[in-house]
Amino acid sequence: MDCTTKTANPESCKADCIAVGIFEDLGPTDSAKRIDEASGGAVRAALRSGDMTGKRGTLIVLRSLAKVTSPRIALVGLGKSTDFGDKAYAEAIAATVRGCGAGVATLAIAASEWAVRDRGLPWAARALVLAARAARFRTDELKSRAGNGKGDDAKNPARIHWLHAKADRAIDRALREGAAIADGMELAKRLGNLPGNVCTPDYLAGEARKIARQGGMTAQILDRRGIERLGMGSFLSVTRGSEQPPRLIVLRYHGDGKPGFANPIALVGKGITFDSGGISLKPGAAMDEMKFDMCGAASVLGTMRAIAELKPKINVVAIVPACENLPSGKASKPGDIVTSMSGQTIEILNTDAEGRLILCDALTYAQRFKPAAIVDVATLTGACVVALGNIHSGLFSKDEELAGELLAAGREAADSAWRMPLDDDYQEQLKSNFADIANIGQPGNAGSVTAACFLARFTKGQRWAHLDIAGTAYRGGAAKGATGRPVPLLTQFLLARAG
Ligand code: BES
Ligand code: MN
Ligand code: ZN
Predict the structure, then answer these.
(1) Binding site membership of 315 for ligand 1 (Cβ less than 6 Å)
(2) 91 CA to middle of ligand 1, Å?
(3) Which CATH number is 84's domain given?
(4) 376 and 405 in one domain?
């Protein structure tokens, strides 16, 4: 799907469908009024009949209106203008894309008149692309044609136009940003949705290589031997029970145009391609959802995909430790003590707290790039889902400035994070009688905070933030699937940093 601007009047615009808005309180938008005038009252007739009241989530298509070039006019109910925020706007775009008709290849939306509360027009243009692309996205590559699941509906609309009266370069740029972020989110969703027997650590490495090839980046993939040489005893302890070989994926984007690779932002993503819990085995219910335990890695790769298109003037290194967490005769056991790359020893009291065990070594590794800041992204704790649900990602950082930047990026990108505490008082819980640190705190006691505190032990003296996306990266139940979050937040953060 391709999204571009089109400068035209709604009544004379050549497209298979023109979508114009109707507010419940304000009535028809300007474009709707123009269509009404040209057609001799077709819009007013629809309102008078009660077929369209402007109620949020409604849509009707008027066909073959007199003196109107396009064969279809979609009247889109926008609800009350005073309630028209981010969510109502995205829903209206999605409803338009889904409801305009399967025969519509080119859809022009007069969305420049759909003023979103507290947002400008470039914001709305970017959000249009994201909402339209999300409305059409599915992961059907593992459905068979025989089962009639593959490509079960057309890819229409193939083209969407932001219809406006005069050209605006800020809108063109916003549409380009939207397309890049959508590409990144779709990659993250696809990788998240692919099952553990397809999306293995080596599969993730292959995807990273593809991103590097397309985006002029360098990819370095370390296998078990390479990981051993780095001394990543904590990472390796997690992969012991699995037959799938682990990978450490390192992707470098060199965008500042200066020699060397100075002060990159390091993005670190948890890449557990399946989390059974290991010997501390999880209960069976919904265990399939633990294929989503690589969504941190997927969002980091998706962000690299987005910046490959946008080419911001900044250096970025993505670091993804990838492996499975499975039980076996070789698997790590509760009570085992391992030595991390940092030299700190860790008592593994619960093999299901494995994310922090792979991340701590990746965080130590990140420091060799002398990063301007490190941001790790992980489906780290069920406790974060309890605390924040699926609305906000949990943000943990002692760095006020970095935390502020990430919160602002989340707000701007409509991919919000909520600050959580990280006080040293919680460190108490991680004391071990036999090693430098235990990998869990007290059960039922600030679990997302103690997980972050564990990571903090491996980022001393660094500008570092941690995003716990256990609640936001995917949805369970009937709408099961990865969300592509927090690709918008991370991409916005990098764009803002690049200035
Ligand atoms: N991947 C899980 C966290 C998770 C749970 C993500 C539910 C999404 C939904 C993580 O590896 C894990 O198992 N964490 C444990 C930690 C505990 C053993 C201290 C948890 O949250 O129960
Ligand atoms: Mn786990
Ligand atoms: Zn996990």
Answers:
(1) no
(2) 32
(3) 3.40.220.10
(4) yes
Whether 161 and 192 map to the same domain: the answer is no
Q: What are phi and psi of 132, to 5 degrees?
A: -65, -45
* Mutational pocket test of ligand 1: of 352, 376, 377, 393, the residue with most ligand atoms within 8 Å of the beta carbon: 352
Ligand 1 proximity of 437 Cβ (cutoff 6 Å): no
Domain of 226 in residue numbering reads as 182-498
In angstroms, the CA 471 to CA 476 distance is 10
The pLDDT of residue 252 is 98
Q: Look at residue 321 and tell me if it is in a domain.
A: yes
Co-location of 187 and 270 in the same domain = yes
pLDDT for 149: 62
The residues whose Cβ lies within 5 A of ligand 3, an ion, are 272, 275, 293, 355
Look at the chain and report how many structural domains it folds into: 2
Active site residue 356: yes
Please work out whether the CB of residue 379 comes within 6 Å of at least one atom of ligand 1. yes
Site to substitute for ligand 1 among 381, 439, 485, most atoms within 8 A of C-beta: 381
pLDDT value, residue 146: 78
Backbone φ, ψ for residue 434 (5° rounding):
-120, -15
Per-residue pLDDT at 155: 80
- For residue 496, CA distances in Å to 6, 350, 406, 414, 468 come to 28, 39, 10, 15, 22
Q: Running along the chain, 499 residues long, what does each successive block of 10 average in pLDDT?
A: 96 98 98 98 98 98 98 98 98 98 97 96 98 96 80 79 94 98 98 98 99 97 98 99 98 97 99 99 98 99 98 98 98 99 99 99 99 99 98 98 99 98 98 99 98 99 99 97 99 98
Task: Answer for the pair 108, 19: CB distance below 8 angstroms, yes or no.
Answer: yes
Q: How many A from CA of 425 to the centre of ligand 1?
A: 22
Distance in Å, CA 476 to ligand 2 centroid: 17
Residues contacting residue 9 through CB under 8 Å, at least 6 positions apart: 34, 165
Ramachandran category for residue 178: left, alpha or beta (phi over 0 → left; psi -120 to 50 → alpha): alpha
Q: What is the CATH number of the domain that holds 262?
A: 3.40.630.10
Check if 209 is active-site.
no
Cα–Cα distance between 142 and 195 in angstroms, integer?
10
- CB of 382 shorter than 6 A to ligand 1: yes
Residues 110 and 229 in one domain: no
User: Catalytic: which of 119, 282, 398, 475?
Assistant: 282
489 shares a domain with 379: yes
Do 215 and 349 lie in one domain? The reply is: yes
